[in-house]
Amino acid sequence: MTESAAPPTTTPANGASKALGRMVFLAIAAACFVFLYYRLNAAAAREGLPLVDYMTRVFTNVRWLPWLLLMVVYSCFYLIIDALVLMRALSWFIKPIRYRDILPIRASAYIISLFSEQVGKGVMAYYLNRRYDVPGWEVASVMLFIMFGEIFYLLVWASVGYIVNRSSLPAIFGWMPVITLGAAVVFTLWVLYFRGAILPGNQLRDKKIFHAFRMATLKHYVLFFLLRSPALLAAVLVYTIALNLFGVPASLRPLLGYLPIIFFAATVPTPMRAAAITLWVVLFPQNEGQMAAFGFVQHNFFILFNALIGVVFLRRAQRELFDR
């Protein structure tokens, strides 16, 4: 067993930090739910209905069967892209592993991701370490590279969406050029540092957890972006159709600007994706009820159905791990 398999040491400082983090995210969730309650209650009052009757009418008017079929297809397509990205990243920085061998663990990790995406990636690192005898810290570095790449891939598409829809986006999106410029500077410095062009004597880059970043070239970041992008472009189409099925007129171009930002909000670990739901209501203020229903159902169905796909692959993943 490698050093990565040893259980982490929990210190009082770490425990206090985690407790503070949970409190912060619970406070964010509470603020989101209070905001949603007042917005939905006001919308119900304008319709002359109690809140429960208002939301019942919203849910009744959804075209559920087409929406369900659409989301099932999208979830399966997302898994295909997700597993492909993981396979390619492993082949770049560690060793080639067949796609059919990656698919079961990538799908099974969705079960853990119900509670924490980071823990789900940690489970994948543990599986690959035990199954293929690859150093645990190097696998963890690939997971870190993927998480880093996802942040910047969303930022790139958010910038593209801003350029395409600048005149029709809410005023708050005016910060996008500043954010994009700042991200570009951070990314450039990051790449130069791990290529040794900045602070060549600094030893932090030599730590095992940064293995993938030391090996990565600009080509790898570009390929990551290209491999990941079909999932976002498919999401723009799927979410546009789904919004119309919920009774909200929507078109592709505005969604290209909205979705990357909303996906950022969805990564905030708040119960029931409260931050993402709130952002939908803010972006579509004329359809509060439909957007609250849409955000709640869309995001939570996605993670729950992905976990169901994971259950299908779980037996194979367990068999391969314990047979090993």
Task: Tell me about this structure.
This protein has 324 residues and is mainly alpha-helical. The chain has one domain. It has helices spanning 12-46, 51-60, 64-93, 99-113, 117-132, 136-165, 176-194, 211-215, 218-245, 252-266, 274-283, 288-323. The protein is globular, with a radius of gyration of 21 Å. The two termini are 13 Å apart. 31% of the residues are buried. Residues 1-10 have low confidence and may be disordered.
Low-confidence stretches: 1-10
Strand content: under 5%
Count, helices: 12
Mean pLDDT: 84
Count of domain modules: 1
DSSP, total strands: 0
Shape: globular
Helix content: over 70%
What's the Cα radius of gyration? 21 Å
Termini separation comes to 13 Å
Order of helices and strands: HHHHHHHHHHHH
Helix/strand-derived category reads: mainly alpha
Q: What profile does the largest beta sheet have?
A: none
Q: What brief labels describe this structure?
A:
single chain; 324 residues; mainly alpha; 77% helix; disordered N terminus
